[in-house]
Write a structure and sequence with these properties.
heterodimer, A: 335 residues, mainly alpha, MetI-like fold, 76% helix, 0% strand, B: 303 residues, 72% helix
């Protein structure tokens, strides 16, 4: 198990380096670089100095290594300083946002809690809806419930979240007036009334994201359950005289959860991607909204960092899913 | 003497068998009909409902109108007929979906065949596929559009530029599934006797691939292609929805939805029509893909 984990960990490093290179080069080679934005009235020698001061006259790979150093060395050092009061970072240059002139990671640190509250709840709600539906549709295969579930899941796959989101706003916020149209980030939960308001404003984004995920997860759950239902051990369990409840919820469910758990872990990065849309639609002030804001403001350091953070999330959760699978299913570890 | 009560089914062409199986899938037939209606709507609609050239002063008088005989879907905030815009937008949306899918399938099949057929390329190419699979696609697409939009628009004009950029960006970031499927198929196919026979009479790799292997991977590729169209349409509308897709005078359904968002509270139908069109297209394409998968699988067919 240890070698399996180590091998996976080692494979993740070149993947991350490659992605960081792609993100770096994409932004670096793009035509709209800040160097081209220096006004023409600036004399050439001053322009040269400006470019040199920004370090933009260095060869590409030097700049790439320096960027990596900032990302993987300087910024974690600042993080540790902030936690333990040490002085690892000294006064090294941090990655600064061009919009706000403040360190990118400070901005991201402020934004992440919003994203995590909304997305985390949405994913949990999605799983809680999907698992029972998946179990029951598999148990009563081809029943009315199963057919309905298949149809609803197909709709859940096909209708994009931005459309369900707008529909929800029109129905629940504009017509019925149950929920506010926009998410109020400044709201602090202090008492019961503010808690209710927090729940109300979270309801729509959570439902939109949760339903989209529930569609996929319930289908995986169903097919995984179906695969196990026909196995010999199920017949044995029934032959021993166990109740249907024990057979389905204990024997079959446990084995069926193995692939579903990995699918759930694999889905986490893509839900962050989906959050970009939901956050913009409902005005949740999270990292997805930060990415769009930075893109519209051409804030390249912010965009680079956020894109790379999304990549780290994907690689990280793929790794977790792999290791989880190996942990849960001993047949997968080929060591 | 022979008992003829068990009717032997008449010999059937393969295409006929596939069609018969496809017809059984109710969702797939529904999808085919809906997609057919949508395609007719965007392709032939403009002939039946020609665009009316209104002057700006006339257009401003009819802005923000509800449905009427003259404007069946109403008009937008600039007095443009929504029905005409829906048809024009649909054409672009569907075109983006198909062209991006063709690029993705072409790249994916090439990579898949190369990786499956040539052992030496297998490792590196599949590594590359894995790397691409862990790219954060939506953020990357957004960054690509943001950085290259103006440059390409200045070379090719805003309309063709946006189309090329988005189609290309979606195409080269969605070939990975096809590559994996094709590689798996090719790995199995190249061990078959007929490939061995072809090789033993001295057929070069190029001919073996083109004549003997490619025709046999067509069915999984077709399923992947169908689902790829749906994926590409959604990705494009996400980009447009975030304001980083097509320009407003060359709209797609996603762009119309984005434009309608501001007026959502007063004129919800401006959001609902394009959203419904996207959802119906994707739903029907997904159902067709589902039906095709069943129909093209000989193990399911004829059961």
């Amino acid at each position: 198990m240890l070698t399996f984990t180590l091998r996976r960990l080692l494979l993740a490093i070149p993947t991350l380096l490659f992605i960081s290179l792609i993100i770096f080069l994409l932004v670096d080679l793009a035509p709209g670089s800040p160097m081209s934005e220096i006004p023409l009235t600036v004399p050439p020698e001053v322009r040269q100095k400006m470019i040199a001061a920004l370090g933009a006259d260095q060869p590409v790979f030097v700049r790439y290594i320096l960027w990596l150093r900032q990302f993987f060395w300087v910024e974690p050092a600042y993080l540790l300083d902030g936690w333990f009061g040490t002085d690892l970072a000294g006064d090294q240059q941090r990655i600064l946002s061009w919009q706000s002139r403040s360190p990118v990671f400070t901005v991201i640190g402020q934004r992440i809690p919003q994203t995590l509250t909304v997305i985390g709840t949405a994913y949990l709600v999605g799983i809680l809806i999907a698992v029972p539906i998946g179990i029951y549709s598999a148990y009563r295969q081809y029943s009315l419930f199963d057919q309905l579930g298949t149809f609803v899941a197909m709709i859940g796959f096909s209708v994009p979240t931005f459309f369900t989101g707008t529909l929800f706003i029109i129905i629940f916020a504009v017509w019925l007036g149950w929920f506010p149209t926009k998410y109020d980030t400044t709201l602090e939960v202090t008492d019961w009334a503010s808690f209710i308001r927090q729940m109300q404003q979270m309801a729509m984004p959570v439902m939109v994201l949760g339903l989209a995920n529930a569609a996929a997860i319930s289908r995986y759950m169903r097919s995984s359950m179906l695969e196990n239902m026909g196995q010999d051990y199920v017949r044995t369990a029934r032959a021993k005289g166990m109740t249907e409840r024990t057979v389905v919820l204990k024997h079959v469910l446990r084995n069926s959860m193995i692939p579903v758990v990995t699918v759930i872990a694999l889905g986490i990065p893509s839900i962050f991607g989906g959050a970009i849309i939901t956050e913009n639609l409902f005005g949740v002030n999270g990292i997805g909204a930060a990415l769009i804001g930075a893109i519209h403001a051409s804030d390249l350091p912010m965009v680079q960092t956020l894109a790379f953070i999304f990549a780290v999330l994907i690689v990280g959760f793929n790794l977790i899913a792999d290791i989880l699978y190996g942990f849960l299913d001993p047949r997968i570890r080929y060591d | 003497m022979t008992d003829n009560s068990i009717a032997i089914p008449p010999a059937q062409s393969q295409l006929g068998a596939v069609w018969n199986q496809f017809r059984v899938h109710r969702g797939a037939v529904f999808g085919l009909i809906v997609l057919g209606i949508l395609v007719t709507f965007v392709v032939f609609g403009p002939f039946l409902w020609p665009e009316e050239k209104l002057k700006v002063s006339e257009a401003m008088k009819v802005k923000n109108q509800g449905p009427s005989l003259m404007f069946p879907l109403g008009t937008d905030q600039l007095g443009r007929d929504m029905l005409t815009r829906m048809m024009a937008a649909g054409k672009v949306s569907l075109a983006v979906g198909f062209v991006a899918m063709i690029i993705a399938i072409f790249v994916g099949t090439t990579v898949g065949v190369m990786a499956g057929y040539f052992k030496r390329l297998d490792g590196p190419l599949m590594r590359l596929t894995d790397l691409f699979l862990s790219l954060p696609l939506i953020p990357l697409l957004l960054v690509m559009v943001m950085l290259f939009r103006d440059k390409i628009a200045s070379i090719m004009g805003p309309e063709l530029g946006a189309f090329t950029l988005i189609v290309f960006a979606i195409g080269i970031t969605s070939w990975m599934q096809a590559a994996r499927i094709v590689r798996g198929e090719v790995l199995a196919l190249k061990e078959r006797e007929y490939v061995l026979a072809a090789r033993s009479i001295g057929a070069p790799s190029r001919r073996i691939i083109l004549r003997h292997i490619l025709p046999n991977v067509v069915s999984p590729v077709m399923v992947a292609a169908t689902l790829g169209v749906a994926e590409a349409i959604i990705t494009e509308s996400v980009l447009s929805f975030l304001g980083l897709g097509f320009p407003p005078d060359f709209p797609t359904w996603g762009r119309l939805l984005f434009d309608g968002l501001q007026y959502m509270q007063l004129y919800p139908e401006r959001v609902i029509w394009p959203g419904l069109a996207i959802s119906l297209t994707v739903l029907s394409v997904n159902y067709i893909g589902d039906g095709l998968r069943d129909a093209l699988d000989p193990r399911i067919r004829g059961r």
